[in-house]
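Changelog-adjacent note: as of this version, every example in the card shows the full chain rather than a window. The one below runs 342 residues end to end.
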Amino acid sequence: MIAFGIFDHLDHSGSPLREFYENRLKLIEAYDRLGFYAYHVAEHHATPLGLGPSPSVFLSAVAQRTRRLNFGPLVYTLPLYHPLRLIEEICMLDQMSGGRFQFGVGRGISPIETRFYGVDPEQAPHMFAEAFEVVMRGLQSRTLDFDGKFYRFDKVPLTLEPLQKPHPPLWYGASTPASVERPARTGMSIVTNGSAAAARGLFERYRMLRREAGAGGEPKLGIGRHIVVADSDEAARVAARRAYRRWHASFMKLWLDHGVKPAGVVYPAEFDGDGQDGRTIAGAPQTVLAALQRQIDDSGANYVVARLAFGDLTLAESLRSVELFAEHVMPLLRAKEQVAAE
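Full-length structure tokens:
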């Protein structure tokens, strides 16, 4: 059955930081109350695109303000972490939340941000591979041993452990056919921001690789979308266009400051501009419902990851969007999936 989650860049809205964080936590309480599956937060550094540069800090507050909602980074930028500290943070968050932590991993999309931390972007993929292996070992044992190029551990005692066994669920951002190979082998859930047609190609390859490996079950295969729901199509579009311009300015800032183009992902400058390919949806509930149903059918996704708070959307605008989405869109999409399954 289709499930629904939230993706959040925690991009700057223009409000004071204390107010910004509190408003986001109030929204997250609504996600928890209204039955969303998970809250996924991005990690970015030195940019208004991401005011949660330490996802673990923000997610510790999420753990205390929610009761049912799963949560986690999408993704931790592994080359920027000491693996031992990350193992300990994951275990703490999983225990503090009663086993609701979701472990998203990646190498980082921005070489600019990676360099800020003194990490050579050319080395980041290799550091990612080693760090991921170290963290996975540490989550599943009480002693850490590893001898690699970047990380070495000799009989380090691990006093913490995750509540979920053998480890919290794994997540990965996918954009190319090659990027689904590791997730398919390890049973990671994936999320893509591409068009429905591009997503279908990724999901078909993922499922094929899972079948070839003889793996059972199916992790979540998600499409990420900017979504605004309001009482009318026009009201939704006006708010979405305004807020998206601020989000896009935050998305582009570091790239423009350094005179380079974004690596691996391109977004249109306007919410409904050329090249959006269905990645942005705004309207009254029936409009959003119809658009999402087409994209689910066209992509084969079993998970919709909504960006319901972005740019300068106010708390009131986002809360109304969340409530309309949860009341009038989610139940009908679930019902159709249930009928199809029967």
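Structural remarks: The chain has one domain: 3-74+170-341.
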